[in-house]
Amino acid sequence: MEQKSRLAEPIIRVTNVSKVFGRQKEQALELRRSGQGKYMVEQETKTTVAIFDANFEVKKGETFVLIGLSGSGKSTLLRCLNGLVEPTEGMVFLENDDIAHMASRQLQQVRRNKIGMVFQNVGLLPNRNVIDNVTFGLEIQGVPANIREKKGKDALELVGLNGQAYKRIYELSGGMQQRVGLARALASNQEILLMDEPFSALDPLIRRDMQKLFLDIQGEIQKTVIFVTHDLDEALTLGHRAAVMRDGEIVQLGTAEDILSQPATDYVKQLVQDVDYSKIRLAKSAMIPVEIFAYENESPQVVLRRMKTNELSSVFVLDKQHHLLGFLDIHKVAELVDFHKQNLIGKVDGQIQCVHPDVPLRETLPLFINNDFPVAVVDHQNRLEGMITQNTLIASLTEQIKAAEEKGFESYQMEVGQI
Ligand SMILES: Nc1ncnc2c1ncn2[C@@H]1O[C@H](COP(=O)(O)OP(=O)(O)OP(=O)(O)O)[C@@H](O)[C@H]1O
Ligand SMILES: [Mg+2]
User: Fold this and answer.
1) How far is ligand 1, taken at its centre, from the CA of residue 73, in Å?
2) What is the rounded (10 degree) CA torsion for 349, 350, 352, 356?
3) Which of 191, 207, 237, 292 is the most exposed place for a label (fewest CB within 10 A)?
4) How far is the CA of 279 from the centre of ligand 1 (A)?
5) What is the CATH number of the domain that holds 293?
6) Ligand 1 atom closest to Cα of 248?
7) In terms of C-beta density within 10 A (0-12 exposed, 13-18 middle, 19 or more buried), how is residue 219 classed?
8) In this predicted structure, what is the pLDDT of residue 415?
9) pLDDT average, residue stretch 75-88
């Protein structure tokens, strides 16, 4: 989860919202106010207080996550935001309009033009082709066909499905269908997207792809997104801020840093204790400087001597501007010496694993499978910034986490400064 200071004014404001399903609404809320828990109230009044006194704001362009265990009220709260559920008490402002008390015709307009929703089950129309599914919302809005087609194709390109526009839905795999669902939400004119566990039915690999895709696209189009999940890793990866829900109440509201470092209750503590550090820590946390390397225009003899002195079996090779070209192992360098070569130009092995310093550490893990060589850390111009070795990787993931447990998370966080 990334903090953004650029976030602007609130676009959604939820104030003192409660939702009771059942008859004895007033009595149930009264009991909740007097401090009785959700399930006691349920037994006593035969009604469910699905949401109790929720307050939060979502800023323009923000991805805001609602997280909590099953039954904690996430979907109900999300549905209050587009009027699918009418709160028993409280107000939901979309800019200056109170959605909670809006006439149904006006509400319909808001749903069409301002707030879109993506469900777990993507709800595609099987008889239509891909692009007609993507542009369905626009069709309902009466957008002309040529504009629809352009928007639809742009959205399909964003989700990596260009070329599939005229296929039938049943010709696509489950993961591709999910992308069509995402494309449809993106193609819409609505500025706000409500997403209720959109990826939870997917298998873990496709799910990760979709999360990455979501982040890429969101970086580009910056809609306001309210995202429901019960997966903390997903919440921390995708959201700028999150509200943690329990039994209908928001028990904590904040950034990843807030939630990880200062869990407000034992419930939140339990949620965060299994958090996957490799997703939150960045590659640069395991990076060390590359002290010994070679330039491609150096003499093989000089390089060989340097490698022997430093007991290195291979070196990174750079051009004059410090761009990474690849690596050479010591046998290859010795061979170049035997053949009286003047330099290393054209002899470098370019098959090298590279990452950027700001990717999650997790993404570097697969690069170490069957690979003893360090992973190079390069900037966007491919200049070498440092390297990650198996040892520094393991140290970053284990020793420092242990230190965190020993010292207390807060001081640890200040020390490493990058969670
Ligand atoms: N239409 C309804 N009628 C009666 N009770 C409902 C209704 N919808 C939800 N509830 C109750 O409200 C509470 C919150 O449900 P909600 O679906 O919002 O939870 P959730 O956090 O989305 O759970 P999940 O993770 O399982 O989707 C639950 O106790 C549920 O039983
Ligand atoms: Mg739900």
Assistant:
1) 6
2) 150
3) 292
4) 30
5) 3.10.580.10
6) 14
7) exposed
8) 38
9) 94
